Amino acid sequence: MKAIILANGEFPSHPRPLNELLNAPLLVCCDGAIEALENLALTPNALVGDLDSVKEHLKHKYKSILYYDPDQNTNDLTKAVKWCLNQRIKNIVIVGATGKREDHTLGNIGLLCNYARMGVNVTMLTDTGIFRPLLSSCTIESYAGQQVSIFSPNNQTVIYTKNLKYPIVNQTLPELWMGTLNESMGDWFELTFSPGPLIIYQKY
User: Fold this and answer.
1) What's phi and psi for 33, nearest 5 deg?
2) Residue 93, domain extent
3) One domain, residues 28 and 113
């Protein structure tokens, strides 16, 4: 089973995240994002969060699928991921998690590594591309000319790449910008790194 989580950032406009949303086998909505679904006449399978952004009439309307989580040490996106795990769902696509506030955007992207450590196969689709966390070295499908950025939350991680236009050869990326704006040379590229993790962005 795959779950699509709609976060309360900018509602997606690109066909790829929109298609995931419209064809979701199981749709989990974070808190205030329910208003955007209302506009599309879509009903989620679960409405999760501390519910502080959900209007009272919507709480009543969706009372049968409300899952209140008051934990103030996590955000609503993390609460939605934990709800999925409680349902034994570990294949998750996140949409609507960027835009609006830049601090929320950076926080949501950074959380991807935590979700991966929890055993979740997770990707985040934006209106321009896809983010994915990596806990171990791997080869990634791509296409010639695809723009690729590499982010290293652990600045001690040593990285070696193959088939990227600007090779990284046994180097660390101690600052956030240092692995951005690279480019794939073909239908794959390889990342060898230790200890990790990494977060990879690929433009559609």
Assistant:
1) -65, -10
2) 2-128
3) yes
Residue ranges of the alpha helices (H) in the chain? 15-22, 34-40, 56-61, 76-86, 102-117
Single-letter code of the amino acid located at 2: K
Does 41 share its domain with 123? yes
Is the per-residue pLDDT at 96 higher than 90? yes
How many domains does one find in the chain?
A: 2
Cβ contacts of residue 29 below 8 Å, gap of 6+? 5, 6, 37, 44, 46, 47, 48, 80
Place of tokens 């790449």: 161
In this structure, is the dihedral angle defined by the CA atoms of residues 91, 96, 97 and 98, taken in order, positive or negative?
Answer: positive
**pLDDT score of 69 more than 90:** no
Structure tokens at 79: 């609460």
DSSP-derived letter for residue 99 is S
Q: What is the pTM of this model?
A: 0.95
> Tell me: the pLDDT tens digits for 6-23?
999 999 999 999 999 999
State the virtual CA torsion across 12, 13, 15, 17 in degrees, nearest 10.
-10
